[in-house]
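Issue: copy button drops trailing tokens. Both records pasted manually instead:
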Amino acid sequence: MPFDGFTVNALVHELNNTIRGGKIDKIYQPEKDELLFIIRNNKNNFRLLISANPSLPKFHLVEEKKDNPLTAPSFCMLLRKHLLGSKILKVSQLSLERVVEIVFEGIDEMGYKVEKSLIIEIMGRHSNIIFINNDDLTIIDSIKRVSPYLSSIRTVLPGLKYIYPPSKDRIDPLDINIDFLISDIANLKSSIMAYKYLMKRFYGISTIMAQEICFVSCVEPELDLKGTNEEAIIKLYSGFNDIIKKVHSIDFKPNLIINNNKIIEFSAIDLDIYKSYKKNYFESISKVIDTFYSENDRLSRMKQKTGDLHRTVSNRLERNLEKLEVLDSELNDAKSSEKYKLYGDLIMSNMYTLKKGMKMAVLKNYYAENEEETEITLKINLTPAQNAQNYYKKYNKSKNALKLLTNQIIQTKKEVMYLESVLESLNKCFLDEEIEEIKQELSQQGYIRKISGKKIKERKKTQKLLHYLSSSGFSIFVGKNNVQNDYLTLKFANPTDFWFHTKDIPGSHVIIKTNNKAVDHSTVTEAALLAAYYSKGKLSSNVPVDYTQKKNVKKPTGAKPGMVIYDNYKTIYITPEEEQIKHIKQKE
């Protein structure tokens, strides 16, 4: 569910019950658009996360600790100066709008009490966190400065007066009555569907909440409200009012909606539109949001951080795929080289019947089983002998081109395989240091400009590898990028360990640490599952996975990172399923 006005309202009530009256102990800025407050209240510590990320703007209490930059950004330093040690007086919401104000009470340089506020605006790509002085509502600073160049409608800069975001003719849903709704719908100038009317006319109503209102009202969401009868409007108001009553009475039931064992949605209230789905209920809306967004937030952050690398590698991959098409076409042309030798031989065999000036010769092909006739084009300015030599030259040229093109195709296919493996690695990034490993790799291979600084150290690489335990107790390690794959296979694994990789499909290297013990079939199957799951074939069925002992795996001289050759292998076909992976125990 989007971060709509109902979710924000539930969060505001929760924060007033948990952190109001608490003191700010620490302030961090883990990301350029994200703040983390450590708040001490009633002998408990609370972590309040506030994010103005354009993809996932939000605020809620979290349990997980976050890595913080060694040097705090300027906005974080400003907040520390003004807010450390201050007290939270209240948390409030503007109507049902996605705008929240946290009011702090602190002490100024003269020892007087002062109030300052942090305004959280959950507005998609326009989301922001704005710090203001309550006396005159001037902006002290914001996590995103908005100049007149960026927006002609609303400027957000230090020293300016803070003004609320424009309403776009939306009105407060908490104060409507049946007379207003009948009058407003009667005055509609154009056709509009019921659910879209609710979204566009009122604060804080998302698509799902608009559909929920229609559902409980027994009104079709796509019903055209222009010219509709009063009975339908009364039904719509009844459902609308029932939902609004839940806000007035603080009747929140935070829950996660689950379908096929996957979390598909969350809500602050019990949605009838999902009554046939499984729901997990929580006391805390923050817990619901934290659970729902934890994976999406990580993926979104990683996608943003790897965006430039993804584009660079994708563009290079596209060029190589186009090159491969051209080379294949040229190879097909070069494969006709044998006919040029045949033409030369036939001309030489029929020298006595040919003359200079002929454009075409139809000669019996003595080399064919049925000796059928073959048409041969001749150049009129050449003698028969010269025409034969011309075809021999074409033959030699095509033969040389065939060797060159075959080699180029092999190299281009290797390049394609390598670039696809890098893209697959980018999709599996969990940590910033893994992105740095891929940057270093691409820099060393000449795909991006050289990165200054120390090379990646080999020590403690095992801390980065994915580590699983098979059902029989064998350790299974998985590399997440080519740097880790090389380390895992070439330095970490012993000769008797088993090595796994998807056949002709980019993916992770997987190692079973045998400790010189016999490996059972279930462990082999589990390792193959992991190799298929952490590959480009993750969503395919019957994925071929090759496996052999590590002693049979070699890295050719000059091969790119992660690229190896192997022999004496077996192949197992496996369909990777997430539920099966979850049953393989993963070690931290």
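Record 2 (pasted manually too):
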Amino acid sequence: MRGRPAKLENLGSKSTGQITWRIAVYIRLSREDGNEESGSVVNQKKILTEYLQQYFQDQYVIADYYADDGLTGTDDTRADFMRMVQDVEQGKVNCVLVKTLSRAFRNYSDQGYYLEYYFPQKNVRFISTGDPKIDTFTNPEAITGLEVPITGLMNDRFAAKTSSDVRRTFDHKRRNGEFIGAFAPYGYLKDPNDKNHLILDEEIVPIKREILQWFIRDGMSLAGIAKRLNDLAVPNPTAYKRSRGFQYCNPGAEACDGLWVGSTVRRILTDKMNLGHMVQGKQRVVSYKVHDRVTTSSSEWFLKENTHAPTFTQEEYDAVQRLFKRDTRTPNDSRTVHMFSGFMRCRDCGKALQRKAANNIVYYACRTYVEKSKTRCTRHSIREDMLSAAVLETIQAQIAMLECLPDITNEINQTPVLHSQETRIEKRLAEQRRELEKVRRLADGLYADWKAELMTQDTFMRRNAKYGEQEKQLSATIANLEDEQRRVAQAATGESTVFDMFLKHKNVQQLDRALLVELVDKIYVHENKKITIVFQVADELERLMKPMDTAASDPA
């Protein structure tokens, strides 16, 4: 908030002195002051104006009012404070008036610099109306006594304590999943009934969903998505927030032209806030004196799950992250990546396959063979149309097999094979649990034996370490057996996320990139044009099929 400067005319009583003081009235309201009326910018302005009218005895004019509203005194980039300093440099100001020292400074070193060096060098008079009262023109010795530096030090320590208290409060809110940012993330709004809770911005959710589908389903590159959004005249996040009347700012906000770029698209697609999880603390200020923001490591972030409505599902988010790990370079004349981009690998050398087109036929070939050396690998070539047909057929076959699996597992459950497997696991679990209980009893008795002087301290320490290691190994074995028990039960009942993952596509007749992203990890091409498909859930598929294989091999 900035007050209008008074006209350059005398206010209050005046003496016949030769100096005309050009006064800068500096006002600051810090964040910790809140909205208390006694500390408001308006009140400070009123108090200082009345001081000039009633108590200032020299000839003066008010050069301007300088007000930093909502800024801490330790901030060395306060806009109006720096404007005041610039006016001092230009000779527009030769007197600075403040309510108290803390309004001008909360930084002890800054106070010393301005009062003892800068203002005297520039012949600038400094007046503080509160305790300690200071007027460097009528009482220049005031700043050389103990009261001023002690007050400055106390103000500095108060700022440090306040900063620590505020940070502790903010960290507590972050741990609880309460949103403390000034502006909600793109696609969300602050709940009108609870400013620490986020609700969906229904105007933006469809845009984010389109961005997601363009990336996963249509294979568009980040730059391609940005261009499409710009073509559709969709304002970027900064421009959108400003269009809603928010005083949004960030380091690059002033240069914002309202257009999307690929990096903005990436930030949206990788933001875990879209999963309904609160993620905060990605940046922090260096200290209460140095207000520069630095990026923190992910280990310092505050993550609280399920705090607000999600925009993406976990499966969609995982698919996006898998795509970012792939080599999906986009041709210069295209906004999209090709369907198999990032999936193809040579079975022998493991390198990516290169896509080529000749005589209206698209084919893939080993990049090592094509670009590097024809002696280090062979061609491993396959036509794209044949590849598409083979991959689709394999996926359809996998779906058909899983679709039949519940019926097959019912038959297996009628045989002694699966029951025998479950019995063996249960028996093994019981044995390991009994052994663990035994080890724990022995370990518990050690301390009593040692206190009763039935063993030496060295023996106690050695046996205690031995039992501790045994307990650790047994606990790990039990956890593995329990995991295996759950997997066998899943296979017996047909309950698995794999079923949902595949069976929702049971009527698929056409291959597209979205299907590949969801189901396929890699596609290996052999020299004889055969392919090997590695599915995303290969391990779980193998576990599901294991009971069937066991039953098939059983002589009964």
